[in-house]
Amino acid sequence: MVQGAANWNTGMTQEWLQEYVDDWVSFYRKHTAEGEVASYIPALKEANQDHLGISIIGMHGMKIRSGDVDVRFTIQSISKVLSFIVACMQRGVSYMLDKVDVEPTGEAFNSIMHLEMKPLKKPFNPLVNAGAITVSSMLDGETSEEKLQPLLSLLEEIIGHRPPINLEVYESERESSMRNRAIGYYLLETGFLDSDIEVTLDTYFKQCSIEVTIDDLARIGLILANDGKDPDSDQEIIPRQVARLAKALMLTCGMYDASGKFAAYVGIPAKSGVSGGIIAVSPPRVRNEPLPFMDGCGMAVYGPALDSKGNSTAGIRLLRHIATQWDLSIF
Amino acid sequence: MVQGAANWNTGMTQEWLQEYVDDWVSFYRKHTAEGEVASYIPALKEANQDHLGISIIGMHGMKIRSGDVDVRFTIQSISKVLSFIVACMQRGVSYMLDKVDVEPTGEAFNSIMHLEMKPLKKPFNPLVNAGAITVSSMLDGETSEEKLQPLLSLLEEIIGHRPPINLEVYESERESSMRNRAIGYYLLETGFLDSDIEVTLDTYFKQCSIEVTIDDLARIGLILANDGKDPDSDQEIIPRQVARLAKALMLTCGMYDASGKFAAYVGIPAKSGVSGGIIAVSPPRVRNEPLPFMDGCGMAVYGPALDSKGNSTAGIRLLRHIATQWDLSIF
Amino acid sequence: MVQGAANWNTGMTQEWLQEYVDDWVSFYRKHTAEGEVASYIPALKEANQDHLGISIIGMHGMKIRSGDVDVRFTIQSISKVLSFIVACMQRGVSYMLDKVDVEPTGEAFNSIMHLEMKPLKKPFNPLVNAGAITVSSMLDGETSEEKLQPLLSLLEEIIGHRPPINLEVYESERESSMRNRAIGYYLLETGFLDSDIEVTLDTYFKQCSIEVTIDDLARIGLILANDGKDPDSDQEIIPRQVARLAKALMLTCGMYDASGKFAAYVGIPAKSGVSGGIIAVSPPRVRNEPLPFMDGCGMAVYGPALDSKGNSTAGIRLLRHIATQWDLSIF
Amino acid sequence: MVQGAANWNTGMTQEWLQEYVDDWVSFYRKHTAEGEVASYIPALKEANQDHLGISIIGMHGMKIRSGDVDVRFTIQSISKVLSFIVACMQRGVSYMLDKVDVEPTGEAFNSIMHLEMKPLKKPFNPLVNAGAITVSSMLDGETSEEKLQPLLSLLEEIIGHRPPINLEVYESERESSMRNRAIGYYLLETGFLDSDIEVTLDTYFKQCSIEVTIDDLARIGLILANDGKDPDSDQEIIPRQVARLAKALMLTCGMYDASGKFAAYVGIPAKSGVSGGIIAVSPPRVRNEPLPFMDGCGMAVYGPALDSKGNSTAGIRLLRHIATQWDLSIF
């Protein structure tokens, strides 16, 4: 492995960075053996456990891509950030924060227990299943198609094409995710749902089944790094306040019940999904010496072998290494 | 109230900022009426519910002080950040993270329940009581005096004098805080304590009783904002890695079970104490237009009237207003 | 109120007992004002809050009936005892005890939390909703009609006619009981259900909607008091081991999270339902002096005004008074 | 093993019963290998894992003793029944039930969690540690000696001599039982303790260290079976209401979180302790055919090898076998 003690001051060309990242991807790929591919739905089980890829997109067109960059995978829980953003754009931040809390939970992502334990029974945050299902219920529209329309349009605006919904995964989720159905009915009974339960669950299962690549996610990360503006066109795609809120939420709650550790060790807003993707956001930072992507960048990794918390084993390690080498932490 | 739409570009003198902050302190002081002074120990009950003060110290000597700046108060839970820093300096970061988790809990600061619910029974993080008591047990030394020596020296190095321990508060804590004693014995039984239980509790009660002013806390905040270095002497007081870790921890867990909301609305690392103090850290930031304290600053507020979570009602609002006006969020 | 210090030794005729019981019903009726009629489904809300009635049937034909004895009401949770009995008859006691625990929970009847907290996630007992839904899934048959057939036949054998299912209540339950649906899907996911989820829930909602009178319930109680045999025909209707098990379960878990208090204050196996019915079983007992119904009896009260635990306020008090006066406790 | 299908009708002499019980003790002794001797305090660890003994005392002097009957062991949690009885005699039943609930908990005996989860934070019942410590605080007296005086006198009255306190075990408990200390301080903070915390804990540790034999316990069981009266002298030793309440409590909460299963499978009031003792109470019962000890009896087993719930593995099986053979169940 190329040692990290590079002098970034001079000659830090895209080629050099590419070489480093290629090296790191090779090195961390072995950690894919430590995790397990998600098995709760058949479609996820077919993922290639050895895969590891990363895409980094900077402010001024600099791109680093390495490893298995072309795999298409379903976005899964990463969609929770996007549906929350869309709901905030439709309903306003105050309305949303009234309905869903933004506190880290300390519990597993699919916990029902914590709903029952808290007097208010309000979902802890939009990035656990209970909160995300509540958010899906708040999207405008009567059908899941109507509800997802603005989310898909937002994605199209960012990544340049309308991403497909993987119907096989969607069917699979719909038929197998009984825990989510349990959560949905629980929320229905406690009065948190704004829409029909079946439409809500359908929306949730569909949004999880949107198919993306790490290039797509890195580009979304770039927009968030730039506070919602497209750095090329300078156009606002997500309102600044919403983009900021999304990043705060990702930092405190984005990596399931390992969010605290990710904040401590990596220190950048991120959100992972059970298919093995992680989106990460590096905002512009102030340092005494030049470092790669100091103007900010969007990053995404794909590595379907997961640890016990549900995060990509190799992906987390790769991001941690890069964050340390390039001093990406926001703290 | 002076409106926030100031043009910071030119003529942003210390006097102007002072005027704004004075204004905001007056405005938010009325929110002291909404909270209640902590009553669980007699000494805290005597605090003046109307008090509100703020101190801000920037990188190059700029200082803003407003409101009730001269009140001396006990540091309480803010000491948890300091003892964690000292323990990391003594034992190393890896050792500490092995013994105490760094996950937000979603539970109240004095919860025993979450220890019992989790298979490992490992304290969630160093900023809840269970974690902080564990940290106190890890400080070097056989007696509470020995254990606190390095912490007090660190403070002396930062604030220029050795802060006193308020003996009345200490006695009061020691005699009344039965919940902490329960937590201590629980930890003893599960094997997390590295020192004698009574020495550990004594250390914990004493560190909570260290007397400070908001100027002291703001100066500590400044050192953290500058990644552990004193900006005047450029000397490292806290190792960079430890300072970074402390800030990550403050952001995810610093404001009790309102940490997520504070991250979302204010967006800077902070830690509050039950006596009404809050320390907050604004690291250097990148913006397109000049803004106050862009090189970073330490901040502290004092407002003993607390909300139901244990945070200063007026203090939180004042910090939120300033963070919004000056765009301090790290996200 | 007629004082209880009667000399039971001589002349303890049915007329005398009737007079006492009438008196006690009048006296305790005022406690109906302290409770509230269940409101979670419209059909239950229409019950008359003032109603209070009791039926007692002894071994040799002695019957005491007093108050509002002719009201027809849905059996609700009392059906949980019956479906458990039928499932034990079909599958055997060992199979059942393997799938559902028989431990009191300390939690509310409709808790999901306790499923998640326990490593095995096995329903605590057949008399909380999670356990009862599991039991319904184990009844033989592919449809809810097939599943309920043996239960209705058992009832017919005991009470002499096939009880109707109140379709209005059934529809109402099916449409409004989202918590039960949540529990059902949770159980489905953890693998405890033996049948299709919708068939299981349908069975559960239907069995809760069986319409009975207190005479019917008292007669069921009599069979249980007689260890499963009809005292008139001496024919075994429920196997002795199953009847015994049902009584043990009723004593430890029958009165929701007030079961311990009911055991302490009243001391006989009982099961209540949210419509206001309570079935109670007084097995034969040994005393030094003659007392009413010493050979055992079945009892049932109806009083739809419920306390916060879900038990009939006046009904519980009336049973407690009778149990004390006649020394019914099994302890 | 002698088969259980004995004809009890004729010739059921003490010798015959003795032979059966000897046989059963031999048979069930092998189950001692499945458990483990309690190890949390050194003194308990020294118990002989292979030991198994039983003592049964009937109403009219009939005694069956078999196996390791002469081992002296500390009474441990069985003392919780006795201190509750004494506290009821001193304070009255209503006062006690106001301070401590009588609900089964579903939680382990040393749980703190359930205190925190319930709004009232009232100890669930006098037979879990939290409840028992609360009860110890309510015993009359300023010192642990004064508090234990009436309990020891009651024991003396029942068993004919004043039982010793095993000082080694007491010291050991006092020094090692940090969880109980944690519970004690927790209760102190929530205001449930009536006495000084150290006196309370001292009382609790001492009462657990009272040394008994199974003959002693069987005799206590006999008094409870006879509703508090000594069957020889016909004198009331424990008020009838208190004896009844104690039996109800033992049935619903006496066997830790296996109480429900014990009620279902064995069906008699019992209380176990971590040293391997179990006291069991068989009240008089009505049956169609003569059965041993139909007038009631007290029973006690000793078998220090414990299962995961803290109950004697062999002891529970032996009691279950006897209860089945002799049809002891109160249901």
UniProtKB/TrEMBL annotation, chains A, B, C, D:
It catalyses: L-glutamine + H2O = L-glutamate + NH4(+). GO terms for molecular function: glutaminase activity. Keywords: Acetylation, Hydrolase. Homotetramer. Transmembrane segments: none annotated. It is an enzyme of class 3 (hydrolase). It comes from Oceanobacillus jordanicus. The lineage of its organism: Bacteria, Bacillati, Bacillota, Bacilli, Bacillales. Coiled coil: none annotated. The gene is glsA. One of its GO terms (biological process) is L-glutamine catabolic process. Substrate binds at S77, N129, E173, N180, Y204, Y256, V274. Its EC number is 3.5.1.2. This is Glutaminase.
